[in-house]
Amino acid sequence: MLLENMKWPDVRKLDLGQMTTLIPLGSFEQHGLHLPFTTDTEIVTHIARQVEARMPGEVLLLPTMWLGHSPHHMQFPGSLTVEPRVYIDMVKALVSSMVHHGARKIFLLNGHGGNEAPVPVALRELKTQFANLKDLFVVFASYWWLGAKTIKEVRQSGMGGVGHACEMETSCMLLISNDKVDMTQARKAGPGEALRYRVIDMQAPNPVTFVNEFHELSDSGVLGEPELATVDKGRQFLEGYADSVVEFLNDFRSWTPEKVKGTPHI
């Protein structure tokens, strides 16, 4: 069910406590010379809509929150961002609104790496705010976390090749919005595996964390190998991501306070 197409009496009839509320999180930021600012938002929206279509009556899908936490992209004109505290409060407001209406299982599906810093803080504050609601579960995941197996199976590039405006994102956009992709400008960029302890890739197990501005890493705004992108890869990526989210949501719907706590060891 798409909340954007409903009327308020329709929502009042729903048993939101028995459904999953799905909230996609995107961004509006540069994606190199060949992809549009809306790339993250379009990809996560596409995945979320595929998931909703596969789970009719089980998922209430909210419109994607298109503005993300993107200060690291602000040296590239046109990128938009909000400060961490503002983003935290935006996420809390969305979740709190749905809790007010009766939602008890809420899944924040993320499509932008920069959101991975503020959202866990929002979840921590929401947990405290709704401490009395023992049956409330608010979960956050980037689609590439759940879809790690898909990336490994479909990617052609080596480590450092799937980062930003890369082989994977470009392939997805070739399928979703082909008319917005300029493959004549799609070129490899970024440090690749040059930094032993900071390989920038969606599958890199980095043992340390530090902060870069994006222009310090890439003149074009690309991290990876977008020239390897194809429509067929885009189809495989997107179908795999939807599969992995559906698999998680089928498990998520069975969560209860008792199940999460598990059997005590005596």
Please give a quick description of this structure.
By secondary structure, the protein is an alpha/beta fold. The chain is 37% helix and 10% strand.
Separation of the first and last Cα atoms: 44 Å
The CATH architecture: 3-Layer(aba) Sandwich
What is the average of the pLDDT values? 95
- The count of strands amounts to 6
Note poorly predicted spans: none
- Beta-strand portion reads 5-15%
What keyword list fits this structure?
266 residues; 4-stranded parallel β-sheet; two-stranded antiparallel sheet; 9 helices; 10% strand
Describe this structure in words.
The protein is α/β, with parallel strands linked by helices. The protein has one domain: Creatininase (Rossmann fold). It is built from 9 helices and 6 strands, in the order H-E-H-E-H-E-H-E-H-H-E-H-E-H-H. A 4-stranded parallel β-sheet has the order 2-1-3-4, with helices on both faces. Helix 2 packs across helix 8, helix 3 packs across helix 4 and helix 6 runs antiparallel to helix 8. The longest helix has 22 residues. The chain is globular. 42% of the residues are buried. The mean pLDDT is 95.
